[in-house]
Amino acid sequence: MSAYQTIVVGTDGSKSSLLAVERAAAIAAAFDATLVIGCAYYENQDAASSTLRQDSVQVLGDDPAQQNLDTAKAAAEAAGATKVETEIKAGSPVEALMALVNDRKADLLVVGNRGINSLTGRLLGSVPADVARQSDCDVMIVHTVA
Question: Which domain holds residue 75?
């Protein structure tokens, strides 16, 4: 197995997502990989409402998304990652993560487990389950919530 070169992780500003960022940062540090932290945002309330999911925080606007990224980048650097990049993407969390994985040719996608075991997640899907099905790279689902 070759070492991971590019690792993507998403944040929505929640405690759960920051735990996933910290785990991804530790892996990036171990492999001397580039860590790309992404944050999806909706441009307006109508767009957010049309894709409302129980397992994701709805980030409205690019200013809050950038604040989430700044916080996540600081957490990643504190966890040992030295090559950290950030990017905001308009759209749903799944769309944004898949775009980042594909655009950056990521070797690993790290997501938290929030929503994966909920009834809604089982019936309608969850961000971790959906990206695991769609991703062409390795996916690590980090235990971030009980």
Answer: 6-142
